[in-house]
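S.,

Sequence below, as promised.
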Amino acid sequence: MDLEQLEQKVLLIDSQLSAREEALRVNQAHIESQIDAIREENARQGQLRGAMTNMQMQGQTVVAELEH
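The prediction came back faster than expected:
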């Protein structure tokens, strides 16, 4: 293989690496977006669990008051 062929091969490999890096950046952005969505949903679920626990405690208080 002569020098010109090696240079062409290096350029091809460099181009392929650049394309893969861009694909990885796109994938990373997508994954980060999914992580943000999961965190938001987790926070929302936590709020709902808290509200349900509060309602359950209020219900138990009402039942206890009615029993007395």
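The two ends are 96 Å apart (CA to CA).

Coffee later?
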